[in-house]
Amino acid sequence: MEYNVQPSKKSTGRRSFLRKGLAVGGAGAIGAALVVKGFPALAAHGSSSLTQGDVAILRVLAALETIETDLWQQYNELGGIQDNEIPGVLGGSGNAAYTKALQNLDMDMPQYIHDNTDDEFSHFTFLNAYLVSKGAEQVNLDQFRTLPSSQATGARQIGRLTNLMQLTVDTSWWTRYRSDAKNPDFGDTFPQAVPDLAEGQHPAIPRSDADTTSTDHIQAIANTAAFHFGFIEENGTSLYPALAQRVTNREVLRILLSIGPSETMHFQVWHDKAGAAVSPPFNVKDPQKPDLVFPDLSAANDDFKANLIMPEPTIFLSRTFPKVSIIRPTETEGAAMGAFNGFAADGLFRGQSPAFFAFLRELAEQADAAQHGG
Length: 374
Ligand SMILES: [Fe+2]
Ligand SMILES: [Fe+2]
What we know:
Elements: H1 7-33, H2 52-79, H3 96-105, H4 109-133, H5 173-176, H6 215-244, H7 250-277, E1 285-286, E2 289-293, H8 335-345, H9 354-368
Helix pairs in contact: 2-4, 2-9, 3-6, 4-7, 6-7, 6-8, 8-9
């Protein structure tokens, strides 16, 4: 496996490590630090050390955060606030029809999309900088930015990592958090909030300006996005606590425990916003896709009702315990591969190269092999 690292930054990190290593531990410490596969046992900062497993967990998170950033960037170019806080956005026009449809769900959608994008940038940038500070390799997916951009007004014409134009959106996160008797960690499955989105392929951004001429059609695209936002951030919400259970270094644990809940804050917002996509009058029928229906869940039963957005207490660890309000799932076994496979099943990687899948799978496998204390 060949990692695509940025040599200049990596060597800077190594030099900086060597300087600090000499200062605190002398030459012997440096020798001990440079272990197999470039994963140092001794850290650059203080006396804390990263295990190979810690590095693998940070690397898969850096990769998945880079992927998240790529997709949020596309949403932001078309439906977010255009400012210079996010690289490459200043001067962007946005897409008026798409933005309007998103604002039908909530007037503040452009702000939330912008801020979620900003957060994802910070997640992968921080994780990579931390890896470099420890003499470990950062993750750079630039070679895989090969997928086409939307042709709609507002989208930059650059290579993308993700495809938001042919999604198959799992909307079962909606019912998973409403159930008071089931938990995915017990093998339970959950019905779809919008069954039509979980089959076939659906754009979550306008593919071209032709997608913006019918108000019901662009509303259906915005509604698809609203459920996709929840899917993405729900994934991160589970991934961090799942992987944290196998971290060894306390500072790395602190990183996971500090970034993870920001994913949950995103998820909670999107969970609320998606409610408007399944409530009148914006639970539209798409005239161009008569088989895509957004049901009216505004007054549905408790397993579906739109405003029941707080996690319902449910079974956890053992059925003998009292029900508890929790993130679900948090099973640590296979968590990284599960997140990657979830993104793949979502259609995010339609059109990606075999090399991309191989690279990501290897990162996930390495992270899933990490053992606490190992
Ligand atoms: Fe993130
Ligand atoms: Fe996220």
